[in-house]
Write a structure and sequence with these properties.
single chain; 127 residues; mainly alpha; 5 helices; 67% helix
Length: 127
């Protein structure tokens, strides 16, 4: 009975995932795919930070934290400068705030929803 229950739950979860599919396909081979959403950028920042840390080979915790925070800012400003993804058409102050929010979210400093971050950024923007 227990195995049947797990099989039934697995089939239910599989079907829920299939119904949640959308027709939008994101091309992950392009470098622009990092700028699709805030969450994707926040997930990409630790990877980029670890690559930088492996090149610099530093053991200082404070220096590693500074590297991670500045990586988020640089990534956001790069996306803003070239008009990539959701950073296209916003001001540089908003891009800096998105970068700061993404670097803090990727480091686990705070765990709040994206709507709260967007509300905070809109306080400083024209929109």
């Amino acid at each position: 009975m227990k195995n049947f229950f797990f099989l039934l739950m697995g089939m239910l979860l599989l079907s829920c995932g299939l119904y949640a599919q959308t027709t939008n396909v994101i091309d992950l081979s392009s470098p622009e795919s990092m700028y699709v959403t805030f969450a994707v950028m926040a997930a990409a920042i630790p990877v980029i930070t670890q690559l930088i840390k492996s090149v610099l080979k530093t053991d200082s915790r404070i220096f590693n934290q500074i590297i991670s925070w500045t990586t988020g800012l640089v990534v956001a400003l790069f996306g803003w400068k070239f008009g990539l993804g959701y950073l296209a058409g916003i001001g540089w102050v908003e891009a800096v705030l998105y970068g700061l929010g993404a670097s803090l979210a990727s480091n686990g400093v705070f765990d709040i929803s994206t709507n709260t971050i967007e509300w905070f950024i809109r306080l400083f923007g024209k929109k």
